[in-house]
Amino acid sequence: MDDVMIRSAASRSTKAAPASSFTGTVLQDSMATPQAPSRTSATLVTFTPGARTNWHTHKTRQVLVATQGTGMVQVKDKPPQVLRAGDVAVVPPGLVHWHGALAGHLFAHISFVETDGPDNTTWMQPVDEADYQAVAVLPKG
């Protein structure tokens, strides 16, 4: 390719994220797919209030760029961390985690993942509802 390729927003279809890997209504908009020698994909993910991923890991790192609203990311056995527009979370390979919207808040991020094939993500169980409700509120102060 000898020039910049522009994919208009109108040319991309938004799809519902699979219920087998997400809780609540989550929309995905594929922005970029790997084209050799690149291994990077980029997906705009929009979470309605209370929506979230299941616990999961990636074989390669994941970079989450928060673009709208208020969300969170949580690593297994650690407290959650709040994400707001402009925040960037870098998730190392193999780390068990989940991310999504806080209760009562819309949240969107762009997920950049360096893929090493179709099985880059290992999906696990949903985040327990009681556990989510206990942590999915903005801290006071």
Automatic annotation (TrEMBL):
Cupin type-1 domain location: 35-120
Annotated InterPro entries: Cupin_1 (IPR006045), HNL-like_cupin (IPR047263), RmlC-like_jellyroll (IPR014710), RmlC_Cupin_sf (IPR011051)
Residue numbers spanned by region Disordered: 1-22
A Pfam short name: Cupin_1
Signal peptide residue numbers: none
Transmembrane segments: none
UniProt feature, compositional bias: Polar residues: 10-22
Name of the featured protein: Cupin domain-containing protein
Taxonomic source organism: Dankookia rubra
